[in-house]
Design a protein that fits this description.
By secondary structure, the chain is of the alpha+beta class. About 20% of the residues lie in helices and about 35% in strands.
């Protein structure tokens, strides 16, 4: 059975579900059979960049990847706001105001740290049993509640001459942060309006662009290229938490879901291993180890 991570540098125009289907298809064409495949965080078709795709037992870690912080580069074009807050939508507001570079630098601290933001009406959030974007496309006025998110860092990457027509920022954000909403709110705080014209995910959890492969390289696997060229081990998704080494008897107990007591380690989340083989994601509390997710490896 195939287990691990394929970190796709998703091209613009490809949906996250289509990317998962491409992995399944290439594994099947490579003669590796039917594998369980899932992704670790939706990336809009108009966005490019890091899409972690879990295969086999690594799918048990998709929830952790969804909860992980992300890093994005994005460009805000000032002067018009669209209903989707990106290039796809229709213009709903315009302004002749363009910010100065000094104003941009001054405003960014207001959007760093814990903030409240209203998600875009065109989002996958559920509203009374329906996706918000389905309601918005049907012409409904969608009103979503503000949510608490955290922007860990927000910096200017590139900008044009003043007055600034567009600016490219890099944001390191918590789960649930909408970059389109962040762009909208920054533009409005500058006394103008704006929308996102470029969005690229640079990092998701422990995975960065240095781990990523192109769609062409993924498709090579279906044509006979070695899978080792594109897949990372399951534990690559666990590098942000400490490993806990088990002896054979402890590993057997953990695989059976039994609680281990009297372990001399600090409380917290660990990944337990026997030798080099991951055994389980475990929680340690008061010296007792409880299995969170077991791996069948």
């Amino acid at each position: 059975m195939t287990n691990g991570w394929i970190i796709l540098d998703k091209p613009i125009g490809l949906g996250s579900t289509q990317a998962v289907a491409a992995v399944k298809r290439n594994l099947r064409q490579a003669g590796l059979g039917k594998a369980k495949v899932g992704h670790g965080g939706t990336l809009d078709p108009l966005a490019s960049g890091i899409l972690p795709i879990a295969v086999g037992e690594a799918t048990k870690l998709c929830g952790r990847m969804l909860d992980a912080s992300k890093e994005y580069a994005f460009t805000i074009r000032f002067g018009s706001e669209t209903d989707t807050l990106d290039l796809e939508g229709s213009v709903i507001a315009e302004s002749v105001v363009r910010p100065t570079l000094a104003a941009l630098h001054a405003i960014l601290p207001r959007f760093t740290g814990p903030i409240e933001q209203v998600p875009p009406a065109y989002s996958a959030l559920m509203v009374d049993g329906q996706r918000a974007y389905d309601r918005a496309r049907a012409g409904e006025a969608v009103e979503l509640k503000a949510r608490a998110v955290t922007v860990h860092a927000l910096d200017i990457l590139a900008h044009g001459e003043e007055p600034v027509e567009e600016v490219t920022l890099v944001a390191h954000v918590s789960k649930g942060t909408y970059i389109r909403s962040l762009a909208r709110d920054i533009a409005r705080a500058l006394g103008t309006v704006g929308h996102v014209t470029m969005l690229r995910r640079l990092r998701a959890g422990p995975f960065g662009l240095d781990h990523a492969i192109s769609l062409d390289k993924l498709n090579d696997v279906g044509k006979g290229a070695p899978l080792e060229n594109v897949i990372l081990p399951l534990e690559a998704g666990l590098v942000d938490i400490p490993a806990l080494d088990l002896d054979p008897e402890q590993a057997r107990a953990v695989r059976q879901g039994r609680v281990l007591a009297g372990l001399p380690f600090h409380d917290g989340l660990y990944w337990a291993r026997h030798g080099r083989v991951p055994v389980a994601l475990v929680e340690l509390s008061g010296g007792s180890l409880i299995v969170v997710r077991g791996f069948n490896l």
